Amino acid sequence: MSVKAKKHLGQHFLTDASIAQDIAHTLSGNGYDQVLEIGPGMGVLTQFLLHKPYTLCAMDIDQESVDYLIEHYDNPQLSVVAADFLKIDLKDFFGDNPFAIIGNFPYNISTQIVFKTLEWREQIPEFSGMFQKEVAQRICADHGNKTYGILSVLTQAFYHAEYLFTVPPSVFSPPPQVESGVLRLRRREKYHLPCDEKFFFRVVKTAFQQRRKTLRNSLKIFDLSEKLKEDTIFAMRPEQLSVLEFITLTQKLESDGL
Q: pLDDT at residue 40 above 50?
């Protein structure tokens, strides 16, 4: 694949086999025996995943990558699919079975991949892979951190997020202009929220749209009652609230008739 084509796809292909092996080891295999690799490219990560006791589906939007994998990786564990992860119905590939997701994710769609994973969390107990370092840190950030935001709260409401290690630009082709970070998400034992989940998403997104303001101001759109405005939680800014406090906030808004 040409460098021009790789840049067009927004993907930087990992060339360091030892790092690929480390990424493959991030999956535990607990609770599933099927794995979806997104954006396998020329298979540097795929080769190590095939050493694991998984049935592996390698999915790439680029037909040249798909043809290469089919030609070079003849393995009964492996199926190679030319498809856009963001547009497919995952039940067409996995039915109702649980599966994990892994990959060296294209930077330009990595956040969208996470959001689709949240939608399919019933079937995805584990997720790991490589992001732009800044995005990986944002996903794993704790409250009180300046990088903590919408992506942090929504991901951590359903998954334990762990930043694992940093990867330098020099081990990619073409080299990106930023560092990369590998993370792992493991689904929480309780991954259904004790509040309306759509409303929870709306509250979190609305709160962080004006992250420097207190919740009393940033959530004005919800027409808070005077009694609710006096609650101390509304004197806080969104980055000060933990995930559990955002759930509590949503419940307070629900009980206020919103």
A: yes
